Amino acid sequence: MSEKIRALESAAFVSWPALDGEEDYRGWRLRYGRGYTKRANSANSQDGAMLLGAGQIAEVESRYAQRKLPRIFRLVGGGPDGMDTMLAQRGYQQVDRSLVMTRAITALDEGAGPDVIDDAGIWLAEFAQCNGQPLARQDTHLQMLRAIRADCALAVERRNGEVVCVALGVIVDGHLGIFDMVTAPQHRRQGLAGKLCKKLFAWGRARGAHAAYLQVVAANRRALALYE
User: Fold this and answer.
1) Which residues contact 108 (CB under 8 A, 6 or more apart)?
2) Do 83 and 52 contact (CB within 8 A), yes or no?
3) Mind listing the pLDDT tens digit for each residue in 69-92?
4) Helix or strand or coil: residue 160?
5) Which of 44, 53, 128, 135 would you call most buried, defined as having the most Cβ atoms within 10 angstroms of its Cβ?
């Protein structure tokens, strides 16, 4: 694992907290986050992660079963050699192949930052509205937002007073992570997400960030085109 990937992984773990903690198992980082998102509820390969045998995989599975969580192994850069094969033999399938995209933040990014909402509950209501999700099902999400201890921006983009796009920016060790970016359906493909990203770059630069990153599902071609 390169130093860059190691730094991004470390920043992302701090930025997106696992509410019920984490532990190390043979070089794997086991995270427990009450089922909200795979990053916070998975066994993550790290530097030095061991190739797990059937019995060791079963031990990891039991720890998630005790918490009534799905069994997910997140293989960063493919994980230890042979791990894919071991998991496939136990019936696992690859899902949601994801890319972590990065960008340097430079003097060209100076400018006005985004509008921010100080209250996580109010921001989450806007997120749910843009995403078409019932707010009542976002309790764990809200607790995760409130558990963030790093410098963060609950950012919104407005049009005629209406919130039309939202995103979360979190800075850890000079890395600005962008999460939860959603544009309301009726306002998509109008450049609003890109506009909000640029404002977050400016916000991050003013606070010492030197790089930005985000994670996107590889099959989401529209999102990839935007972020590229």
Assistant:
1) none
2) yes
3) 999 999 998 899 999 999 999 999
4) coil
5) 44
Distance CA 29, CA 11 (A): 14
Q: Of 130, 131, 189, 139, give the one whose Cα is nearest residue 162.
A: 130
Bridge-based pairing state of the strands 73-74 and 98-104: unpaired
Burial class for 136, CB neighbours closer than 10 Å (0-12, 13-18, 19+):
exposed
Measured CA distances, 155 to 5, 127, 175 (Å): 26, 10, 17
φ and ψ of 159, to 5 deg: -135, 120
Strand order in the sheet with 73-74: 22-25, 28-31, 43-45, 73-74
Sign of the alpha-carbon torsion through 215, 218, 220, 222 = positive
Provide the token pair at 151.
């410098």
CA distance 45 to 30: 9
How many whole angstroms separate alpha carbon 43 and alpha carbon 56? 12
**Which residues are CB-neighbours of 141 under 8 A, at least 6 positions away?**
36, 124
| CA distance linking residue 146 with residue 156, whole number of Å | 17
How many angstroms separate the CA atoms of 205 and 118, rounded?
Answer: 20
The residue count of the chain comes to: 228
Q: What is the pLDDT of residues 162-201, one digit of tens each?
A: 999 999 999 999 999 999 999 999 999 999 999 999 999 9
Secondary structure class of 159 (helix, strand, coil): strand
Q: For the segment 196-213, what is each residue's pLDDT rounded down to a tens digit?
A: 999 999 999 999 999 999
Distance of CA 182 to the CA centre of its chain: 13
